[in-house]
Each structure stands twice: as C-alpha cells, then as structure tokens.
Amino acid sequence: MLEKSLIKQRGQTNLAVQNSDIHITVSIYDEIERLANEGRHNEVADRIKKLLDFVGTKHPLFPHYRYKPARVGNTTVLEHEALTKEAYEKYPLSYSGRFKLANHEKQKHIDIRDVIEEAYYKQEEIEINMQSFSTWLGDQMVETPNLDQSFENGKWVIVPKALPEPMKMKFYFKGESDTSIVDYLEMGVSGKEDGKFILIDNSSQNNSKLLITLKLPLYWDTDKEYGKSTEAKINVKIKPDFRSNVEANRLLLKFLMQVSNDKGIIAFKNLEADKDIIIAPNFSFEGDFENLEKDHMFIERLYKIEKYYNLQFSIPEELDESDWEWIEILENAIENKPVKKKLKMLSMELNDKEAIQNIIEHFDSNEDVKKLMFEQSGSEARLELFNEIIPIEKVQSIYNSLRLDALEKIKGKLKYMDQGDTIKVNFVPGDDPVFSEYYFFEKKV
C-alpha cells in the first residue's frame, strides 16, 4: 500500500509519490537500438534470437510446429516449420489456393499440365496472380501471418522441377578405327514433341559450337507403318551464335563429309560408364555432294589462315572478288609464295629529286629493265577481311620487265623541279608483263 506524505513543491497540480516501487517497461526495439549504439553487437544478436524464439512459440500447433520468419517479395511472412519428423508426419504441411496464370489471362482454355510441362523443359518459372491461399497442417487450416500482403507486394511463381543432370557423352564414328566427331558433349533433356518423342540435346553446353539433338520415341510401336514416325533421329547443326564461325562450319562439314563417305556407324558413348548407349547404323547424306565438297575445301582454307595468323573470322553470307583475292594473298604469304599478276601500268608520285634522277639514268640506257624490285611499307598498311584486321609489314613487288613511260617528258619536269614538288612517274610493261607480289603480315598476338 502506498503511504501518502505531504511534499512541498512549487507549481500547480503536481503529483508526487513517496515510498513506492516503480516499474518502467523498455521496448525491445529501444533496447536493441541502445545495444547497437554501444557497439554490443553480440548482445543485439542474442536479443533478436530470443525474440524469434518467442515468436515461434506462438504457433497454434506448438510444440509440434513453430513460426519461422521468411521474405516473400518485399514482405516478411511467418512460415511453418516442423520441430520433429514425427510432427511433420502427423501434421503434413500442404497448401491450397486460387490463382490465374499471369501471361495467359486472355486465353479461355488452358491445360495447366501443358503449361507446367513446357516450363519444366524450358526451366522457366511460371508467373501467377495469387487470389487466395490457405495453409493446412494435416486436416487443420492454420494462419500464415502477413501472407495476404505478399499477394500485392510479392511476385508469385511456380518453380519447375529441375531437369536431370546432363549426361557426358562422346559422339563418334564407330568402326575398325573410331573417328571422333565431338569428344565431349553434355546431353540433357530439352523438350517433348507431339507427345511421342523426347528431345535430348546439348543446348545448355555453352562451350559447344554444334547443336546435336537426339529425337527418341517415348515408346516403340510394333506396327511398321506407324513405327516409321517413331524412329529415333539425330540432327546436327551449328548453334545460331556460331553460324559465321569458321571452326563451327568446319566441324559440321567434316561430319557431313564423313557421312557422305559412309564411314562406319554413328554412336554416342557414355563417358562415365565408357559404354555405347546409342548406335545408329543407318544414315545417309541427301544433299549435293559437289557443293558440300566445295564448301568443305573453302572452310579448310579459312581455318588454316585463322590458325596461322591467330584470327577469328566472321564469314559473311556472300563473298566479293576482293575477298577471294585477299584469301589467296594470305595463303601464299604462309608458304612464302608470290601472287602473280599482269601489269597494265605502274604509277608513282615522287618528291625526291635524287631518286627521280636515278630512275632516269637507269632507264635511259636500258629500254627494258629486267627483274626490278620495289618494296612498300607503312605503319598504316593493313588488310581487312571478315571483320579481322591484319597489319602488313611490307610488300615486295618484282617485275619481270619494265619500261619508263614518257622519259623525255620526265626529264623536262625534273629540270624545273623545286623543293616540295612531286613528279608522277609511270611504268609500262616491257616484253614480259608478269610481276610477282610477296606479302609479309604481322601475326596477331
């Protein structure tokens, strides 16, 4: 009982209490803030743990279940966590609700199984608009606090079940001496077709330039006529990102050349088990072999150039005349061979008076000059081919026979030549118009 005593103090309507016990309640948030400001972070963590443990005990099925905070979108909800295996078995957790498919709301007839199956093969989440949601533990509906707010604030999706791990395979021609097509493939399930076929490919293998697809029947039909549509098929093509890549085209063309030559049996080997799992003895190439051979030879030429100069071409849809000329020049440079041409006229603009005088003297006594070499170089000299730039160190031109055109006219110009003037000198072929050009290129680092 409080004992009242008279306390004298100034002011009006003051209250004083004497000989009493006073209890002051401090908010847990105020306490955490105070501890944090004092740098007592271990104690902050301890207070938060005790708070979460306390919240967990407020679950309607405690001590079988407890509440566990979790983020759903921008909202924190309290999930249901079984505390024992027996509790989960006695009160299994399940959910029920109503939702609409976010990207299919305008479609009247949708089979959710088809949507889920497609998402499974594509490994894509299905976005949904949640309308209602209930949580059940056994046959008892329980509240999931704050869940309703996540309908508006959070993004709801159906997450597809993970696909089986890709199988590591080797793709090769099986025969007396095996010939590898692709040494390493990661073949995984990628889809289903017409409800009859399962598709297995290496589309998820980023380091592979070829897309290899196996089309396998989900079941085999004994009826021969129907069975034609359920035969296993193998498809090999270049991945879209590598269609202009030389190495990718080389791999495909090499495979088609081997198929056209009926070399062995196509097989897939499981590398981990070191065992063939698919063998295809019947295959054929149905295209134009002559065109195939031309394409193969062309790609082999580009591949050799790429490797020698450390390049990576991007092949265009069509080649012009200059492209073919540069390819020949690069090939010849690898073997230190010249490109032979026929001279019509060689023109030079010279500003060195002494050099012009030397040319005049050389050609004044010789109507035709044999085996004359000119060398050109410059820091900006380069070749551009299929999105690659190859610097040119120098070009040596060797002419079998040259004549100086309008010799007397050049003499007259030289006589009145001042400092800084240029004189155009023209050479025409002598009795042999053929000349040879040697190109020297810098290799790309």
Specify Rg, calculated over alpha carbons.
Answer: 42 Å
Beta-strand share of residues: 25-35%
Extended strand count = 20
Overall body shape: elongated
Helix percent band: 25-40%
How much is the average pLDDT?
83
How many domains is the backbone divided into? 3
Number of helices: 11
Sheet with most strands: strand arrangement: 11-10-9-8-7-12-13
Low-confidence stretches: 224-229
The biggest beta sheet is recorded as:
7 strands, antiparallel
Rounded to the nearest angstrom, the distance between the terminal CA atoms is: 95 Å
Question: What is the topological layout?
Answer:
Layout: H1 28-37, H2 41-56, E1 65-72, E2 75-82, H3 85-90, E3 93-101, H4 112-122, E4 126-137, E5 140-142, H5 147-153, E6 156-158, E7 167-174, E8 179-193, E9 197-201, E10 210-217, H6 224-227, E11 233-238, H7 246-260, E12 265-270, E13 275-280, H8 289-309, H9 321-334, E14 339-342, E15 346-350, H10 353-364, E16 369-376, E17 382-385, E18 388-404, H11 407-415, E19 423-429, E20 434-441
Antiparallel strand pairs: 1-2, 3-4, 4-5, 4-6, 7-8, 7-12, 8-9, 9-10, 10-11, 12-13, 14-20, 15-19, 16-18, 17-18, 18-19, 18-20
Helix pairs in contact: 1-2, 7-8, 8-9, 10-11
Q: Describe it for me?
A:
It is built from eleven helices and 20 strands. With 445 residues, the protein is of the alpha+beta class. It folds into three domains: 67-158, no CATH class; 167-305, no CATH class; 321-441, no CATH class. The strands form four sheets. The chain has a seven-stranded antiparallel beta sheet. A hairpin with an 8-residue loop joins strand 9 and strand 10 (210-217). Helix 8 packs across helix 9 (321-334). The longest helix is centred in the C-terminal third of the chain and has 21 residues, at 289-309. Residues 224-229 have low confidence and may be disordered.
